[in-house]
Amino acid sequence: MHLFGQEGRVQTRLRQRRFPGSSIAVVAAGPDRVRVAPHPRSPVILPDVDGLTRAPRAFFARPVLELAPLVLGAVLRRETPDGAVAVRLTEVEAYAGLADPGSHSYRGRTARNATMWGPPGHLYCYFTYGMHHALNIVCDDPGVPTGCLLRAGEVVEGVEVARRRREAKPRKSHIPAASLARGPGNLAAAVGATRADDGADLLGREWSLWVPAAPVPADRISTGPRVGVSGPGGDAVAHPWRLWIDGEATVSAYRPAGPRRRRT
């Protein structure tokens, strides 16, 4: 599989662009692997938390296929009156906007996907299947509607707060820790995300993203087809844009798109 698929424009931009405030850049891809290379980091005056640095705006101002592997291992944190919850991200999916038939923005701007067209570093939150919310990080330049879906992670702060949210409905047993944020709907529920959070700024007071000093090693990142995406966007050869950290118990199971029901 080739990470960049068959979209030459996306691939060319990904190989050529470099951004301040970032410690690595994607330079190539091989079968089921992402290859990254270090380059100098511009000074960013932000506090460190447990070896992590808060991502500045420039971190998000890059093509989604470049951002996606950098988000792995980063920590999404939200602070609310209920308490803070932080999730170390272990699985993501890239959606390349107008170049990607699997993207919400492929057919143009709507009221639902308007956040994707805005400035980078904001959250696009949507409601899906009539029951779940999902969070995406908006990236690239304003007007380039791309996003990185946050599929799964490990809750590293606020486990009990996350558990209360996930177990709001009666259950026979507790949810295992590894399953609290496994899957995009569960991750969104763990951090208490709703449509009211659509457009939230990751550089604001409530939401933030914290990146490690060193990226996840390239030989620990695998790629594959995106979960539940049908049609051309689900093509495993052209769009193997689901990325995950090998060996992580929090990574969700792959499920292909089911057959669409005909309307009667």
Describe this structure in words.
With 264 residues, the protein is an alpha+beta fold. The chain has a single domain (8-245), classed as Methylpurine-DNA glycosylase (MPG) (3-methyladenine DNA Glycosylase, Chain A), CATH 3.10.300.10. The protein has five helices and twelve strands. The longest helix is centred in the first third of the chain and has 9 residues, at 8-16. The radius of gyration is 17 Å and the shape is globular.
The coarse silhouette is globular
Q: Tell me the total number of β-strands.
A: 12
Count of alpha and pi helical runs: 5
Contiguous low-pLDDT stretches (5 residues minimum) are 1-48, 260-264
CATH-defined topology:
3-methyladenine DNA Glycosylase, Chain A
**Distance between the terminal alpha carbons, to the nearest Å?**
38 Å
Secondary-structure arrangement, i.e. CATH architecture:
Roll
Structural class: alpha+beta
Profile the largest sheet: 10 strands, antiparallel
Listing every helix as H and every strand as E from the N terminus to the C terminus, the arrangement reads HEEEEHHEEEEEHHEEE
Mean pLDDT comes to 81
Radius of gyration (CA) equals: 17 Å
Strand content: 25-35%
The CATH homologous superfamily: Methylpurine-DNA glycosylase (MPG)
Percent of residues in helices: 10-25%
- What count of structural domains? 1
